[in-house]
Specification:
This protein has about 200 residues and is an all-alpha fold. The protein folds into four domains: about 55 residues; about 40 residues; about 35 residues; about 40 residues. About 55% of the residues lie in helices and about 0% in strands. The chain is built from twelve helices and no strands. The longest helix has 14 residues. The N and C termini lie far apart (about 85 Å). About 20% of the residues are buried. The model has no long low-confidence stretch (mean pLDDT about 80).
Length: about 200
């Protein structure tokens, strides 16, 4: 049984600010933590949440929250800043959601990813994101700017002719999906592979 004496506001009327705090945090942080913050009993918090029409659906992330993840988290704003923009979401839940959404922070690039970026960004620009699962074109651009890597222009890519060996390999896998064979052409984007395949099929 709850000891009401340990909760300072047990017998006080609820304020608008308290209801807002419950609305923002209920289902996202433990009920007991909300209770301790407000000086209310956990039971009182649950009753307040019920009066506000809150239920387990509050655990679901809103589209607005996911947009914050896709932009600020991916751009490397830092976990502290992202937590400020997502009231009630803990560091653990943010990292878990990032994993579920397949997102990576620009602050956490691996050595292999950086090497790929240095190698391909000058030639194909933000299209290198296709070679970096979880990285968005915007995150790629930001990281490239941080490293001082510039895009040389699409003309460089268009002038790079397909070799007979590449075309033969493409012909060999003409029935496979592009995503399945892209690793065979590390210097080509999915779009470039698609166009080359179309040209092959058009030949008599």
């Amino acid at each position: 049984m709850e000891d009401e004496k340990s909760y300072r506001n047990t017998r006080s009327p609820w304020t608008v600010e308290e209801y807002r705090y419950v609305e923002a945090g209920y289902g996202k942080i433990p009920t007991r933590e909300i209770a301790e913050h407000l000086g209310r009993t956990p039971t009182a918090v649950r009753l307040a949440a019920r009066s506000l029409g809150l239920n387990k659906q509050s655990l679901e992330w809103t589209d607005a929250e996911k947009d914050v993840m896709r932009t600020h988290y991916v751009e490397g704003a830092g976990i502290a800043k992202v937590m400020e923009m997502l009231p009630g979401r803990t560091k653990k839940t943010i990292f878990t959601m990032a994993q579920k959404m397949g997102l990576y922070s620009a602050r956490g690039w691996t050595r292999e990813e950086t090497q790929l970026l240095r190698k391909h960004y000058p030639l194909i620009g933000t299209s290198v994101a296709e070679k970096l699962p979880g990285r968005t074109p915007e995150a790629v651009k930001i990281k490239a700017n941080q490293l001082g890597i510039s895009f040389k222009g699409s003309m460089v890519v268009s002038q790079k002719m397909w070799t007979p060996e590449e075309l033969a390999l493409l012909k060999q896998h003409e029935q496979a999906r592009i995503a399945e064979i892209q690793h065979l052409f590390p210097d080509r984007t999915a779009v470039a592979i698609s166009h080359a395949r179309a040209r092959l099929k058009a030949k008599p």
